Amino acid sequence: MIAIWDSSLSVGDGILDAEHRLVVDLLNELDVALAVGAPFAVVEMALDALGRAVARHFARSAEPHPPGEHDRILGRVRQLQQAWGLGQRQRLDHRALLELGRRWIAHIGRHEPPPGPAPLFRRPQVRFAASA
Domain of life of the organism in this record (predicted)? Predict the structure, then answer.
């Protein structure tokens, strides 16, 4: 388990929340797939779904973000996809997914303003799974 989604992660926008939750769910699915030794193709499909979800979210994101944040997160997903495709399976492990999950949660908490007046925004508090 990489992260547990709960209402504290909500940014107050149903579309953004659904996109954010999908990425958290895909990270958790990948973690389980690796833990149970899922076939190569299953992990590859999950990685592809993760890459599409992150890219789609960032493509429609109009909020201000620190320079390069989107590129760093999406770049890390692409690195993991490439390593998996080249047979470097050791590069995709629980620690790599946990680090990516932390970056994703930081992205949600720091940079997604809620719709409407900004003063009501709260920084999410997240429970991360313990490192293996």
Answer: Bacteria
- The pair phi, psi for residue 128, each rounded to 5°, is -95, 150
* Contact call for residues 129 and 98 (beta carbons, < 8 A): yes
Whole-angstrom distance, CA of residue 60 vs CA of residue 76: 19
pLDDT in tens, 71-128: 899 999 999 999 999 999 999 999 999 999 999 998 888 654 544 444 444 445 555 6
- For residue 64, the number of C-alpha atoms closer than 13 Å in the C-beta half-sphere is 0
Please tell me the pTM assigned to this model. 0.81
For tokens 């990425």, name the residue.
Answer: 23
Separation of alpha carbons 4 and 68, rounded Å = 26
Largest CA distance in the chain: 48
> What are the structural domains, with CATH classification, of the chain?
7-114 (1.20.120.50)
